Structures are given as structure tokens and as C-alpha cells.
Amino acid sequence: MLLAASFCFAQEPGDLKPATSNVLDAQYPKVDGNSRVQIRFKAPEATKVKLNIWSGPKVDMEKQADGFWTFTTPSMVPGLHYYTLIVDGAEVSDPGSTAYFGGSKWASAVEVPEAGVDFYQPKDVPHGQVREIWYHSSVTGAWRHAFVYLPPDYDEQTKTRYPVLYLQHGGGEDESGWARQGKANFILDNLIASGSTKPMIIVMANGYASRVGYVVPDLTGKPFGSPEFMKVMQERMGAFEDDMTQVLIPFIDKTFRTIPDRDHRAMAGLSMGGMQTFQVTFDHLDLFSYIGGFSGAGNPFLTGTKFDVKTAYNGALTDPSEFAKRVHLLWIGVGTNEPERMKSGLESLHNSLDAGGVKHVFYESPGTDHEWQTWRRDLKDFAPRLFQTPSQPASSAR
Amino acid sequence: MLLAASFCFAQEPGDLKPATSNVLDAQYPKVDGNSRVQIRFKAPEATKVKLNIWSGPKVDMEKQADGFWTFTTPSMVPGLHYYTLIVDGAEVSDPGSTAYFGGSKWASAVEVPEAGVDFYQPKDVPHGQVREIWYHSSVTGAWRHAFVYLPPDYDEQTKTRYPVLYLQHGGGEDESGWARQGKANFILDNLIASGSTKPMIIVMANGYASRVGYVVPDLTGKPFGSPEFMKVMQERMGAFEDDMTQVLIPFIDKTFRTIPDRDHRAMAGLSMGGMQTFQVTFDHLDLFSYIGGFSGAGNPFLTGTKFDVKTAYNGALTDPSEFAKRVHLLWIGVGTNEPERMKSGLESLHNSLDAGGVKHVFYESPGTDHEWQTWRRDLKDFAPRLFQTPSQPASSAR
User: Fold this and answer.
1) Are the Cβ atoms of B47 and A45 closer than 8 angstroms?
2) Buried b (16+ CB within 10 A) or exposed e, A273-293
């Protein structure tokens, strides 16, 4: 997340301002015009406070005479950066920050603006609404919560029906991620206002589900990748798939004025949500015709198999021309500064698809990591490509 | 917040279960059948960890051999209890808890169920939606965010118009409070389903506002009640009042199918929100005819004046029979276990109103503190009394 810029680190940061991601009245974190971030945290009796703000080593904060600990980062890449503080071994959030659900907890994050870039800011354009819905799932036996973005004219155009994008968060996040961290609603407001993007409904569901009666084992001490963790993940992926296809989609089509067919239904997700997207859509090509994987696609973690375009996904890609007729968009993206394993995984998928003649879009987000700025840019590139296929019937009243 | 029950404290708590307020998979906090709460928090190198869960002294947690610190409370009263942990002087949230905005930060809280009580739980009844809206305020010069509850049949009954309740959070909280902590949407779903309560729209706005150009001074080290704090509060109260009456209400009446008149507009709020309610409604009796103060009403903190029914609020209460014709409901409530100053303040207001012959409802929530269980019960008592005045025209299409 560090910019590879050659400026003077020793220089005192100037023009520091409270981050836009702070809670009301909180003066810290601050960000300066060179994208340096200053963290300040009160822990008068602590022996050691570390800052966990980027992949790689955690850094020691410096104790000040007033009981506060401080640290100023070098220039950071733009976007929203999760961080935590480690106070004598306790990993906690910064009370000055808005809480964003990430890493399976309500974490801190600091928004570093991108100069001249405002596609994810609220502007003086018509705004859609984000609605919270609750539905009882026969798959999980519980009430489930989701967010639904409705385009700006939804309440006025009472005869119009809209296509739907199902948009999933990443591992350790929840259904609030795309609106809170991702600002998906503002991105869509701005894209729709520009005329480049079809008005659409976006459903942001919780990616975690457990079937009725399934008891989730205690995963304390079982990290991501451990057999215990992956078994739970696989069970949950299956429950999520069933909940989505058997309960959520029918609920959405009943509750909102959707165009309830595969030509007007897309799914995309980031990281774990990308894996879920590939699993759900390829298992249900009768339901979806647009597919997006943002820094996450197939599910090699779960199956352990190598991707082969001839056999993958029950042979859906074997005949590229048939696939191109069936699937209007296959889109994958990755940030150029993401961890090597992630980047090479997505590049390898892209190359396999190219080699197999499978039409797709491969997007690289310049200079960004496995973080929300990558996924905001992904959505900005992905959404205008949706529901534009000329052969489809226009969104129409019925 | 402690139940004055005579049971054996030394007894080990049994049947402990993860609290419903925990994040996914978090095993702690736990709550047992006797409403005891067990907190467990990892801080292997900390010298001292304190728990701040009730008014009064903070308690020392006990360090365990595994680097976790634990504490088990005596029986707590039911409801949602904010808490924080103090790790070597740093006051932080528990990563196991859902984050709720309270105390001007994203705090932890633990939900202690109330036996046999489910009026604020999601049930198998029609559910309304909570919508997020953004509006640009000419008063504050910024985009503002609010939540709006729409009753279950809002999307189907496209010709029906609805009355509106403006419902405000307390000091240090935000517009998310009534839905997240208060579960206002489920309370209304259940009340409406029972037939006791008119379907209504509820607007939950952010109670903090600053006029264009106003620079909020740094309030670090200026506690609630200090002159600096109160000056900012008064400025913000005025900005909030202007924003609400000049921008928000017109925006709501334009955006939703409201009945846009005083007979179909109510306002209520808790604590600081109750003070705001009394200020806004009595300044604008042309806009409101239902008034609710939940553990907060007049604004003695700001004006320093004693309440006199003959002169208060520009004489609005001087003629009780005229007032009763004009204001369909004046409702105040307080929890019987709230701090003495709060309780005696509300009781004194109640007695003054009685002495002055001003018709009103005074509700006492048995055994609860200045906490959300009090305010959930308040809403349950308050909402069914709204918009029932027979002289009003029925909610009708236009």
C-alpha cells in the first residue's frame, strides 16, 4: 500500500486534515496532501503499541509525553485502508475511525483521497436509495439481512422493471461492505447520471450462511486455509448458493420490479465473493448471463484442482462460441499491487481463458492492492458493460 | 444496570451462550439464563484490563493463563448494554461485539434477552424496509444521511399516503441508533401487524448539524456540560432545527407518500433527541401535533431556566384546553433505574404539567436505566397512540 515515490520521508507532514472516514469531531487519523496518514491513539499506561496498516511487518508507534501514541506513514496509495492497533498484545480498533466490518470484526479504516478522482463521491446528481430488507430463509432457518440499491427513478417510474446485479463482499466482511467501504451506491448514481450505465437494482447479500441444524465449530486458532476453516467455508459456500438461488432471488423478484430472467441478472463479487460468484453462476447459468470476479474468481482453494478451460465448470467453457452466446460478459480484475499469489492466480486464469479462446474482459487496477480502491474501480469498469447486449429486449413495462 | 436479586454470586454461571449481538462466529461475550454476562478479551501483554459496562466504578478483569482476560457480571437487567474495555489506559471496543455508534464512537454492546418478551424481535409478520437516503442541505452545505422506515405495504399500496414520525437518537449516537440498537423497524412491524398501530413512516435523521462556515472547535478535554461543549451543542441544536424544518421535512414530503400536515406529523427522541424534540416541536407547532420525550424533554441544560408551565415554550402551555386541542399527544417517559438527576427531572416536568392541567402521558419503564431497553419500551407505548385522533381525516389517497 506504499507509493513507490521518491520524496523525503524525514520531512514533517504538512496540511494534515482529519480523514473523511473519521467519526464526528475526531481529529485523528489525519491525512496530508502527500497522502501521508498520521495516527494518534491514547494509551497512557501501555508498554508497546503497534500499528497494523499494511501487509508486511507491523510498525511500532511512538509514545508521546501526553499519553498518546503516534505514527505517520509514508505516502499511501489512494483508497480506504483497514488498520488496527495492537496495545500490549490486544488487537483493537481506533475509536476515532468509523467502524467498517472487515477481518471478521468492526475495524478501523482511513480514507486516502485520490487526486482528481470523485467517481465514488456523492455529487449533485439524482441519488438512488439503499434499502435494508429482511427475509426468512428456509435454507438457513433464520432471518437474513441484505441491502438493496434502487436506482434514482425507481419510485417515480412505477411501471418500469429493472435488471439486477447481485454484488458480494469479501471474506471477513459482510453485506454492509459494498455500500460503506465500496460506496457502490454513489458509484452507480454517478454512472447512471453520466448516461453510460443502465439503471439497475443491486442486491448486496451476506455471503455467510449455514444450513438449518449445522453447528459451526469453534474456529478459534484455525486460520484461513486450515482444513477446519476450509471445511466450514465449503459448507457455507453451499448453503449460500442454495439460499441465494432458492430463497433470495425469488424474494427479490417478488419484492422489487425486476426483469426476472437470466438476460437481466448479473453476479459479481470481490475476493471470496468472486469465488462465490463463479460457483453460483456456473452452477446456475439458467439464472445468470453476466459474471464478474474482482480479485477472486474460481475456487482453487476449495477444490485443489488446476483450472482447465476444457473441463472447468462442467464444460461450460469447452465451446467458446457457444459460451459467448450464452454469457454476455465474463469479467475478471486484479490490482497490480496485490499479493503475488493473487495476481498470478488471476493472470493465469486470464491467460487460460485467452488460450482457450474464451471471450472475457481482464482489468488491472494500476497501483492498488487487495483493497477497496481496486474494487471501486472494478465496479466502475464492470457496471457500464452490464445489460447492454443489443439482442436483449429493452427494459420494459409489463 | 444490576438486578437487585438475591442469588448466589459465587455460583459458576451455567448455560452460557454467545450473545445475539456478537459478530459472526464470535464466542464471547456470552450470556446465561440468569442474565449474567461473561466477557473475554485477548491482551496477552497487558498489565491491567478494566471493563466499563455500567455507570459507577469500572471493574478489573482477571488475567487467565492463555493471555485472555475475563469477567462475569452479576445478573444484568434486560436490554442492550454498551461496554468498553480499558487496556493499559486505552479505552477500546471488544472485537467480538457488533459495533454500535454510542458515546461518539463505535462501541461494543451486549444484548441481554428479556424473558418472554419479543416485541423487538423479527417475527413472521410483514416487514417494512429501512431505506437510506442522502440529501444535500442548504443549511449545513453538505450531504446528509438519514434512515427511513417504510411500513410493510408501502410498495404495494401505491395510492396510500402515510403519517410520519421523526425519531431522534441520543447524544453521542447517530442516525443508525434507532434501527440498530433500538430495533425500531421490528417494533413497528410487530405493532402494525397486531393492528394496534397505524402504518407510518419513521424518519431517523442525524441529530448533529453545523451551519455552513461554522468551524467546530476541538472539543478534546471539554466534557459534556462544560461551557465550550454546551456552546457547540446549542449551535448544533439550532442548525439541526433549521435543517430539519427547512430541508429535511420538505425533502421527505417530496420523496415519500406522506400526509404533509401537522395532524400527521410527530416527533420524538431519546435523551438529547428528546431535548431536540421539545425545541423543534414547540418552535414549530405549525408542523407537529404529536410530541414525545424519551428520557429527555425540555432543555434546562442549555437555557438554565426553571420549567414554568405558564411561561414555558413561549406560552404554548398557558391555556391547557387550547393546548390539548392543538397537540394531540404530549408523551414523556423515563426508566425507573435511571440516574437520579434524569429521573427527578422528568418526574418534575410530569408534576408541573399535572399541576398546570396540561394533558400528557407519563410512562415509567420498570427497572431499566438510561439505556435502549427503556427506549424500545417507550416506542412500544408511544407509537400506538399516534395518528389515532378521530377528528383527523383518515389516511387517504390524493
Assistant:
1) yes
2) bbbbbbbbbbebbebbbbbbb
